[in-house]
Amino acid sequence: MSRLFFCALLLGILSVHTLSAQLIASSNVMSAGRLKDYKGKTFTVKPAGKPVVYIFLSPECPLCKNYAPVLQAMQDKYKDVQFYGIISGRTFTQSEVAEYAKDYNITFPILMDTDKKVANYLNATVTPEALVIGNNGKEYYRGLIDDWVTGLGTKRARATRKYLELAINNVLTGNGLVSQTTPIGCLISNY
């Protein structure tokens, strides 16, 4: 009896987490559906025919600095996936975000979510936090990029599990697996 209850509870939790992503793909996306990058170019942030990876970033977060080359390498490897970096809050100026992108040679769009509409809509809480959304609008993954970081201020010598890359591969190969890890990082600014 308790096993059945546990399975039902787990299914309910997974359903709630995928709901926000499914809403992004719907035709009635809230006003958070369009954001400008640090150059002023407007982007539609909902999936449009291909999987999307949302990475919540902060130019001053040490983990975001360390992971920038990893994320850029993934964008270069997975040409059929759209990566969006999202800077939420009013803490950083366009020039600070531009400097971050330049310093780490980031070529995927980094969007300014000044009112935190996308962060709130997707329930993002820390940087870096990754979400993988299939071209069907379903959330397939949420959480860590990999297992390199074990806690705030602690890390392994190297990552042994590449969660984000596994999720991308699952989406591209049609695997319906939905997974989640708990992201570790800097809290998204409230300013």
UniProtKB/TrEMBL annotation:
SUPFAM superfamilies reported for this sequence: Thioredoxin-like
Which residue intervals define the domain Thioredoxin in the entry? Answer: 14-169
Q: Has keyword Manganese?
A: no
Q: Which InterPro entries match?
A: AhpC/TSA, PRX-like1, Thioredoxin-like_sf, Thioredoxin_domain
Presence of keyword Cytoplasm: no
> Span of the secretion signal?
1-21
Name the UniProt record assigns to this protein: Thiol-disulfide isomerase/thioredoxin
Q: Say which species the protein is native to.
A: Chitinophaga ginsengisoli
